[in-house]
Amino acid sequence: FPLFLQVTCNCFTISNGEMQDVGVGLYPSMSLLNHSCDPNCVIVFEGYQLLLRSIREIQIGEELTISYIESLMPTTERQKHLMRQYCFVCDCLLCQNEDKDAEKLAGEEHVWKKVKDAVNGVKYPKSEGEWEQVLAKCQNLLGSSESCLPDTNIYQLKMLDCAMDACINLGSWEDALNYGIRTLGPYRLYYPGFHPLRAVQLMRVGKLQYSQDMFPQALETLKQAYTIMKVTHGADHSLMQALMELKEQCEAAMRMQ
């Protein structure tokens, strides 16, 4: 039991290139890093290799911090999660000020609670039929909540992400792009500065724009992704290489027009 608790408190969630969870791993030296809801470093993976990247200027003697949890959660949820898994209360400025909580839970409460339950109930589909069921559920909820919830509501945002994923897996590129475009404003609000999740989302939307022959728009989106990703991932990361290749293809397509 003590070993289980040590693993639970010290393991890192391993993610793939699109920041989707694929496993967990133990990295003893990185376990020494403390938490902040507004950290000065982020962790990204290259396969099973863990990379610690600074996302802003760090002063001599300043502590390096990372976020142990998904920062999109409102303050009370972050605090519950941290206490349950790591047994401490975070007193960072974001928690003290309950920063952006009003935007995260904007809209009619009974509606976003319904959307929250639906999002939490989605299991990762394994077949085209299951993806179709997920998409139908997303479209139904998004249609009924559109006048009640802004896209900045975090559960509405997660539903948009889910619908985008479903459309991509079903090859519905135009619909995927429409959902993806709606996420960019909220992502900019909740992941300001340099954040790998925003970089990946911009890259996904840029790829969809490229697939629709929207080359000028795609290039602008990919440039935004590049600006962030060169900080969060570094020039040698495989995802950065893929982004640069896509950006070059987009530039070539524009020259041929």
Give a written overview of the molecule.
One of its GO terms (biological process) is methylation. It holds the Pfam family SET. With 257 residues, the protein is mostly helical. Among the domains are: 1-98, Beta Complex (Beta-clip-like), CATH 2.170.270; 191-256, Tetratricopeptide repeat domain (Serine Threonine Protein Phosphatase 5, Tetratricopeptide repeat), CATH 1.25.40.10. The chain is built from 11 helices and 6 strands. A two-stranded antiparallel ribbon has the order 1-2. A two-stranded parallel ribbon has the order 3-6. Strands 4-5 form a two-stranded antiparallel sheet. Helix 6 (128-145) runs antiparallel to helix 7, helix 7 runs antiparallel to helix 8 (173-190) and helix 9 packs antiparallel against helix 10 (215-232). It is globular and about 55 Å long. It starts with a helix and ends with a helix. 28% of the residues are buried.
Beta-sheet strand percentage?
Answer: 5-15%
Biggest sheet record: 2 strands, antiparallel
Count the DSSP helices: 11
From the coordinates shown, what is the CATH architecture of one domain?
Answer: Beta Complex
Mean pLDDT: 92
Instruction: Provide the CATH topology of one domain.
Output: Beta-clip-like
Low-pLDDT stretches: none
Strand order of the largest sheet: 1-2
What overall geometry do the principal axes of the alpha carbons give?
Answer: globular
What is the helix/strand order? HEEEEEEHHHHHHHHHH
Overall number of strands: 6
State Rg: 19 Å
